[in-house]
């Protein structure tokens, strides 16, 4: 009853606080109960103690003043799936309130308006929904930080905050706010950070935002402007030249057009400039980087052209240079090759000409160099080092000369793509020093000589493509010792000799092409060879299929595992057919269900990456936007990796599932299944997954019989169909 009265008082007499008989201790306990909801955790030390009326000052996350009133409350990274109760308004001495990353939900109670001493209001990374009640901020004259990033707020952006004279940091990103950016935001002259990224905003960028500049010497002016991932249109306003304090500009993934104004190159403190995924045209400002502070430049996927400014790395700070998918011309400045701070260079799909600056192959920290689909010419430099380089792609240029032996110095190289160039000479033996190399692609060059048998020292290889060259000699039988190799294409060369029967034992090999060579003899008919049809051996006039009795050459006599292999193949084929049937049935059924929420991962630019890396990216702190486009994750995508073409799926699945910290059927399936299947019942997919894994057991005795497989498939477990929650 006392509580009820108190609550009435709270509503009727907002200024009459603290409530008589309702101490901060009691409010905190009320908060705990409400935020715990059904099964919250993380505030176990918040317990009443009749003996000590100030016990609450020692609760985790709580700080009091001398009068034992709570001045600071920080409840972050707990599991609190409940609501914030209206009683929070009674903690009216609060200065810092952080309720972040705790699965809190419901609406923001309007009683928060009573916390008029607040400097920090941080409710980021929760699932609060409905509109953000802007009017609660009207009395918070001291408010400096308003962080509601990554919630489910919708409606229009709050305009009430423009009255707050001390507001420095406003983050409203990662919500579902729609409409336009209020012109009034330009009146918050104290503003240093404005984050509106990842909403569903439309309209133009208000040119008045330029008022957020260095007005008085005391006032710093806007440092960060993040409007990425919205639906903004128009050009970068000319008035923005006033934003002299700006350090970060993120405008990526909008529908902006026009030039990138020259004044962007003149901002004295600009460190980060990311405008990818718009429709910007013309040239980059020639002064860009001249401030000596530029760290991150990403202008990819626009219609930019012209030369690359010389001074991008003038200050030796540039770490990320991404220019891909534009129409940039001319040669890459030599200065880029001297930029020791660089971590990533991605300039593919432009119209660059001239030689590649030699220094690029010697940068100490660089992990990723992607130069493909340009018109670079000249030779690769004889000196190559770079301990960090994981991916080097020069695909589809006009590079001539030999592959330099120094490529063997790149001790962390995982992907080497030199395909579609004009390289000649032999494959250097030094390549075989690359223990971490997983993919090597020399396709469509004019490389001659033999395939070095020492390639077996590249023990991590999963993919070899040497097709369309002038390789001669035999296929080294040692190649069969590459236990992870799943893709081998040696087609269109001048290879001779017989097909080594040992290849039949390469259980990981899923794709083989030996077409258009001068191989002879009989194609072995054992083991893995059964997985390949005639199109793997076309254009070898003297090579005959295993069944051709008139063949003039002898067979290889590796018939040992013939029948078992054949059986496995049949079983796999059958399981596949049945899987297809089951999937089709589910699909038909699903159509009748309501359209389920599709799960969408917008990768941050196309790049090879492993599934683990994707999972790694799916952390809340990496969410850069939700809004109408679905959740978008900021992937700090790894340098290299391979998941896709030519990977042995069985191995991959085994590896992925064995690395789960808490293995279970559903965890395994969720870790490996294609997200596009999110509409299928989890139990059904687990069932199929288990059968599939049984069928690929190493020992034949452990595999189920055909009868068992049919029985299992036709008798799925009965359970409530919970959809795959991805
Ligand atoms: C709390 O309960 C919900 C469903 O009621 C469940 O999804 C969640 O995993 C539970 N959380 C904890 C930490 O037990
Ligand atoms: C509030 O947070 C600010 C910044 O973190 C800090 O400087 C200040 O001391 C805090 N105030 C209280 C009362 O905890
Ligand atoms: C709040 O607490 C979390 C850990 O619980 C900590 O990481 C964070 O820095 C704290 N924030 C403030 C403003 O004290
Ligand atoms: C709680 O939130 C975290 C991160 O925001 C999320 O990963 C987790 O799934 C949520 N827990 C529940 C039970 O919703
Ligand atoms: C809000 O709180 C979270 C978690 O404590 C923290 O990571 C974030 O930096 C805070 N926001 C601001 C603007 O300080
Ligand atoms: C928040 O938004 C997501 C994405 O639209 C939705 O799946 C979820 O149900 C919403 N949660 C709440 C509590 O509104
Ligand atoms: C980009 O701009 C060009 C002309 O400037 C226009 O033809 C084209 O349709 C625009 N593309 C997009 C995706 O807006
Ligand atoms: C390929 O290299 C050989 C010498 O190894 C040369 O005779 C031939 O003309 C080259 N072909 C092309 C297309 O460059
Ligand atoms: C042969 O196998 C390849 C894939 O390895 C497949 O694309 C092709 O359709 C098959 N051809 C025949 C005739 O079965
Ligand atoms: C092998 O290469 C030849 C020639 O490029 C091509 O016609 C054939 O389809 C390829 N076969 C396979 C299985 O990829
Ligand atoms: C069998 O091989 C001979 C040459 O070795 C060839 O002429 C003949 O066409 C082949 N027959 C079949 C059915 O492939
Ligand atoms: C952007 O605008 C288009 C129409 O102009 C609309 O179809 C689309 O859903 C909008 N996207 C977002 C994220 O609001």
From TrEMBL:
Transmembrane spans: 567-588
Protein's recorded name: Leucine-rich repeat-containing N-terminal plant-type domain-containing protein
Signal peptide (from-to): 1-21
Coiled coil: none
SMART domains: LRR_TYP
Domain Leucine-rich repeat-containing N-terminal plant-type: 23-65
Lineage: Eukaryota, Viridiplantae, Streptophyta, Embryophyta, Tracheophyta
SUPFAM superfamilies reported in the protein's UniProt record: RNI-like
Annotated keywords: Glycoprotein, Leucine-rich repeat, Membrane, Repeat, Signal, Transmembrane, Transmembrane helix
InterPro entries per the UniProt record, alphabetical: Leu-rich_rpt, Leu-rich_rpt_typical-subtyp, LRR_dom_sf, LRR_N_plant-typ, Plant_LRR-RLKs
Organism of this sequence: Salix suchowensis
């Amino acid at each position: 009853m006392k509580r009820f009265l108190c609550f009435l008082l709270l509503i009727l007499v907002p200024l009459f606080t603290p409530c008589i008989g309702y101490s901060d201790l009691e409010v905190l306990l009320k908060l705990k109960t409400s935020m715990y909801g059904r099964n919250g955790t993380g505030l176990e030390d918040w317990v009443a103690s009749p003996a000590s009326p100030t016990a609450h000052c020692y609760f985790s996350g709580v700080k009091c003043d001398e009068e034992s009133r709570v001045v600071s409350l920080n409840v972050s990274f707990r599991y609190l799936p409940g609501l914030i109760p209206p009683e929070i308004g009674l903690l009216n001495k609060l200065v810092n309130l952080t309720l972040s990353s705790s699965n809190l939900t419901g609406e923001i109670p309007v009683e928060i308006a009573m916390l008029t001493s607040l400097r920090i209001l941080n409710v980021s990374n929760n699932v609060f929904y409905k509109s953000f009640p802007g009017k609660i901020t009207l009395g918070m004259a001291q408010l400096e930080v308003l962080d509601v990033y990554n919630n489910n707020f919708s409606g229009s952006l709050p305009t009430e905050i423009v009255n707050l004279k001390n507001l420095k940091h406003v983050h409203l990103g990662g919500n579902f706010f729609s409409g336009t950016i209020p012109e009034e935001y330009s009146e918050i002259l104290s503003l240093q950070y404005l984050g509106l990224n990842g909403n569903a905003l439309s309209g133009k960028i208000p040119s008045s935002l330029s008022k957020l500049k260095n007005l008085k010497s005391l006032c710093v002016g806007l440092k960060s402007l993040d409007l990425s991932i919205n639906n903004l249109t128009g050009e970068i306003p000319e008035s923005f030249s006033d934003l002299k304090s700006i350090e970060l500009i993120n405008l990526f993934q909008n529908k902006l057009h026009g030039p990138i104004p020259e004044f962007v190159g003149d901002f004295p403190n600009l460190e980060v400039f990311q405008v990818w995924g718009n429709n910007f045209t013309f040239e980059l400002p020639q002064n860009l980087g001249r401030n000596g502070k530029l760290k991150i430049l990403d202008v990819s996927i626009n219609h930019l052209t012209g030369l690359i400014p010389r001074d991008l790395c003038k200050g030796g700070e540039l770490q990320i240079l991404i220019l891909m998918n534009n129409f940039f011309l001319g040669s890459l400045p030599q200065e880029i090759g001297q930029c020791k701070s660089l971590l990533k260079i991605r300039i593919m799909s432009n119209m660059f000409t001239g030689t590649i600056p030699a220094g690029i192959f010697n940068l100490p920290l660089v992990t990723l160099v992607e130069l493909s689909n340009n018109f670079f010419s000249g030779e690769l430099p004889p000196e190559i080092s770079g301990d960090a380089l994981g991916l080097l792609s020069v695909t589809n240029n006009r590079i001539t000369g030999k592959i330099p032996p120094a490529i063997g110095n790149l001790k962390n190289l995982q992907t080497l793509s030199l395909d579609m160039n004009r390289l000649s000479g032999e494959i250097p033996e030094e390549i075989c020093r690359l223990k971490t190399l997983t993919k090597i692609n020399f396709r469509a060059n004019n490389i001659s000589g033999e395939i070095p048998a020492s390639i077996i020292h590249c023990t991590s290889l999963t993919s070899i493509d040497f097709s369309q060259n002038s390789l001669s000699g035999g296929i080294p039988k040692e190649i069969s010792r590459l236990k992870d190799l799943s893709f081998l294409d040696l087609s269109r060369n001048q290879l001779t000799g017989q097909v080594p029967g040992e290849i039949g034992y390469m259980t990981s090999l899923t794709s083989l092409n030996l077409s258009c060579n001068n191989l002879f003899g009989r194609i072995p008919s054992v083991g893995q060879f059964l997985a390949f049809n005639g199109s793997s051996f076309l254009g070898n006039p003297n090579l005959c299929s295993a069944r051709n009795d008139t063949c003039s050459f002898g067979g290889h006599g590796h018939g040992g595992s013939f029948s078992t292999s054949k059986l496995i193949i049949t079983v796999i084929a059958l399981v596949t057919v049945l899987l297809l049937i089951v999937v089709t049935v589910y699909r038909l059924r699903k159509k009748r269900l309501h359209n389920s929420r599709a799960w969408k991962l917008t990768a941050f630019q196309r790049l090879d990456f492993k599934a683990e890396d994707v999972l790694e990216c799916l952390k809340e702190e990496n969410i850069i936007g939700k809004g109408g486009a679905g959740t978008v994750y900021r992937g700090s995508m790894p340098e290299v990796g391979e998941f896709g073409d030519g990977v042995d799926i069985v191995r991959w699945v085994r590896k992925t599932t064995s690395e789960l910290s808490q293995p279970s059927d559903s965890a395994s399936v969720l870790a490996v299944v294609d997200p596009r299947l999110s509409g299928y019942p989890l139990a059904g997919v687990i069932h199929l997954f288990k059968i599939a894994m049984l069928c690929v057991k190493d020992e034949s005795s452990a595999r189920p019989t055909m009868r068992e497989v049919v029985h299992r498939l036709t008798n799925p477990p009965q359970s409530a169909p919970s959809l795959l929650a991805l």
